[in-house]
Design brief:
single chain; alpha+beta; seven-stranded antiparallel beta sheet; 31 strands; disordered C terminus
Length: 992
Amino acid sequence: MQQQASAEILRAIAEAGGDVARPLQQIAETMARLFAAPSVSVQLAEGREFTREYRVGSIARRIGSAYPRSNIKVGGRNLPGTVVAENRQIHIPDLDHLDPFMADFPGLPHARAGGARTVCGTPLRREAGAIGALIVFRDQLLPFTDEELALLQSVADQAVIAIENARLFNERREALERQTATSEILRVISQSPTDAQPVFDVIAQTAIRLLGCNRAFIQRCDDECFWTVTWWGVEGRLPLVDMPRVKIDPAANFPSRAILQKQTVHLPDWSLIELPPHERMIQQKLGLQTALFMPLLRDNKCIGLLSVAGTRPNLFGDKEIALAESFRDQALIAIENVRLFEEVQAKAHDLAEALQQQTATADVLKVISRSAFDLDAVMHTLARSAAELCAASLCGLYIREGDFLVCRGHTAAISTEQEDFVRRTPIPAHDPKFATTRVMTSGEIANIGDFKSDRSVATQVFREQLGFKSLLIVPLMRSGQAIGLFILGRDRVGQFSPRQVELVQTFADQAVIAIENARLLDEIQAKTRDLTEALTYQTGSANILNVIASSPTDVAPVLKAIVDSACEVCEAYDAAVLLRDGDDLRFSAHHGPIPIGLDKWPINRRWTAGRAFIDQQPVHIEDLRDDSHADFSDGRELSLRMGHRTIVSVPLLRDKESIGAIVLRRIEVHPFTDKQIALLQTFADQAVIALGNVRLFEEVQAKTRELEQSLEDLRTAQDRLVQTEKLASLGQLTAGIAHEIKNPLNFVNNFSALSLDLADELNDILAQAGLAEQLRKDIDELTGMLKDNLSKILRHGKRADSIVKNMLLHSREGSGEHRPADINALVDESLNLAYHGARAENSEFEVTLQRDFDPVAGMVEVFPQEITRVLLNLISNGFYAVSKRKAAASGAADFEPLVTATTRAQGDQVEIRIRDNGTGIPPEAREKIFNPFFTTKPAGEGTGLGLSMSHDIIVKQHGGSIAVETEPGVFTEFIVTLRRKSTVQKSAGETR
């Protein structure tokens, strides 16, 4: 029975294939039958988790229901976890008498409740570790014997074999699927050398199938944006509608991070991270939860992305990532194939053009002289003659072109298939697998009698295609270097004779002569063309330089000359110069029949002029309407609108900065040559020179205007100096006059006061004398008139004394040091001084002081003492005005006297405002308030010199300004403006 059970298990393992469930279920059932066990369970673990289980019988199912797999941990307090963790067999003979070590195992009470009495747990071992447990339950007290325990371990090992077989089978199946997918992709790559789109489609489709993802994207990118070229879902290829170009911004989307980091970006669970706006939108639309972004790198530059995503988190493991990256590499191969194909096509085009300009020059004997300008005819004649004279089945004459040897002449006896193979299969010049490489390197002849001895893959390919068995390779030598090969093959074994070898050497020398003649002729023709072009180009450049010399102030004639010459010399239908105008390029000059139809166009990479401007490199497009230039969407729109096909744009560069572009266009598809593009760059440099000349001329003009302004400022300063000297002289004169007046004025004032006292004394004396009543009345009347006259004399004398004092103050020269001062501090100090001075004169004086100082008013170069004098005068005037208004409005209890001081920084100036809500200034007095001796105050209360003196200090001494704004009965505000850097002359005698 044991052998039968083993056979059943082995048969189940053999028939399982990649399905591990069937043999494990079979093992559980067999164990139940073999050991008379009502229940058996097989549990598999990965890490600390039990991931799969196979149960037979009610006891095992009862335990699984009461104690689910999610509660069982490897190394935990449970029987399967302990078996796996300790990698040992655990035998429990009697569940009613448990070992204290297992007394808290939660599954054992459920097993006993289900009827189990004896239990054994056996580890499933792989590579000295346990990957699962086989648990057998008996419903009677029947401990397992040693033989049974050994058998259980043997069965457990067979279970591991089943698991390993399934794993290996699945890995082989996955490898086969991946190999098949890779083969399919490579087949599509080989069938699409000119178009990567089919490859992109099959890669995305295969990624969906093999990776089990929900979406696969292939995207291309440039320096600014990325865009989708194909995307697939489980339902198939999806349409590329509403798929805009997305800005490369790592903060806004995940693909940008892979593009900039140039590394695979794996985001296994989107629910654990903050999604950028782009991915948040995709998640809302498609329900994606995980993604893998793989950059396509060429020369360490990202040119695109392969991205796969799924709706289930943690979808991609290491194997899936490796497979996806192989798909990424295949996509890059497809892109490279297309690029290389395009390069080969371009090179083939260049070679075809060069061949049109070449002429062959030699033939064997008569043919060389007769076909001096037909190199191909000479090469074919040499090959046919060599094959005929040397009895060769085929002969090829190869010439080195770059890294390859290209057949330029062959025998006419070969088949069409062989001729096609020879023409489309160049021989690598440096590949050591070819015998030709050894000949090219050493310059020695190779005479191979039996070519079967060469087992290289490359040789086998040529031998199978052309059928030769022996080979003669003779180098074409020029100046000690091999420039080509004469290759002769036979379909029989045997070396070529010495005479035949010598003959082929002669033909090789003649081939070198023909090649050299053709080369020299080509050089002569090229030189002639170069000289002709150079003369034409020089003439065009000279014309432009003449216009530049004659138009130093106007760029328009130069630009017109440039477009005229460029259009003519470069054989273009039209030419245009575009200059930068903000974010646009404006068409500034044009010549030719193709219409422009617009004034300007935005600067971007979607048209040639914009891209040339941004990249600072020429942009040449052979056909704007070709689908390969879809990234020039604006250029294609302009092409359809204006009718041109071929275009070249060259940037105008000044100090490594783009300032415009020159554009040449052709209606037909006719590419411009490199020389024409180089000449256009010369024209661009000349346009920059012309623009620079105009700019320099304008700068000179501006500098001239600045010098004129400086001269005017100097004259103004001189005038101020003269005025200062005049004021100083006038001040000295005024001071002298005031001093002269002061002495007699003091005499008048003093004697007037004394006379008043004497009059009073006279009245007292006369009052004691006995006088007639009428006489006394006459005397009292006369003494009264005398006292009244003396009082008027005294009052006007004091007013004259005040005028003299103010004249002395007004005439005094500027005092103090001219230095930087904190303007806020000066104003604040003046407010305090004026207020305390007013309170000292009148203890009942009350006024509200309001300060509004600009914290950045800063420092100003002034005479601080003089500015303080001005501020005291203006503030005192404000106090006087609010006092008068308060006295006049004694009945209005709501009037509150207010004086406000404000400072404001205004660039290189500072503004000071002193405002009061007093009586204001009448309109007829406003224009006169700064005149000397003019005052609106009553006689005896003002001299009319305060504001005049303030005006002179601010305007004449400091070069500033003072103005007044007022409304009678409402307010008066004086505005003082000072320069931060004073330009006026310092006072005479001041230390500099």
